[in-house]
Specification:
- The structure is a single chain.
- The protein has helices at residues 2-18, 36-52, 82-86, 157-168, 180-188, 202-214, 240-253, 258-262; strands spanning 24-29, 32-35, 57-60, 72-80, 93-100, 103-111, 116-121, 126-128, 131-133, 144-147, 173-175, 194-200, 218-220, 230-237, 264-265.
- By secondary structure, the chain is an alpha+beta fold.
- α4 links the parallel β10 and β11.
- α1 (2-18) packs antiparallel against α2, α4 (157-168) crosses α7 and α5 packs parallel to α6 (202-214).
Length: 266
Amino acid sequence: MIEELKRIAREAGKIMLESKDFGIYSKGTAANYVSDIDIKVENFLRERLLALCPAAAFIGEESAENDYGADKQWIVDPIDGTANFVRGMDMSAVSIAFAENGAVTAGAVYNPYLDRMFYAEKGGGAYMNGGRIYVSERPLENSVFSIAMSVYKKEYAPMCFDLAERIHMQCEDIRRIGSAAIELCNLAAGKTEMFFEARLYPWDYAAASLFISEAGGYIGTMSGGLVYDKVIPVIAANSKESFDLLQNEAQDCFAACADLINGETI
């Protein structure tokens, strides 16, 4: 399956690269929108992935109806980093995950601008463009921390800034790319060491979550392990010590947000 996922992801990335003129539409807020190309890529992925495994449900960011209770699922973000895509910032990716009984067993994330393909099968290690990848061994004081500021629900932004300041005082530096999939892939490949985002949908993190586990890292939420049927805060780190620290600091910053900590129904 993984070779087919890589092939399909590359074809989807080609659609992104060749798209020049497209419409952009709001999805409820000024910061949340979709382009014609998101929809075009998702339709392409639906056709190809369901042909690969017709028994699986298709869960996509732009789909009107998603079956979150199916035993087998394709969990897809056609363009993770749409804001980057429409601005021509070249930091967006196609994300494809295959899940069975609530666990991701295969995935591919492709950034066509850098021709960078991340992929993994459960138990087989994580790879980038054919080479095995691992999380870094850098300690907390030399860590780079990726964090977003809850752009779609800005009432959480002050708590995100609080967390960013707390960790910044203990780590080396902070990064923000605008694509959770790419940021999580960077962590899996040893390019960064910690990650936090307050509200992510399953398609944002499903594939990359497998890469982090297979690369020797740690990923979860403020209250436990990952689920793929809610909007959840996602925490990841290269070491158990950094993960625990980030989780504890996040729990403290968001102590008053029980609904967020436990996940929001989609």
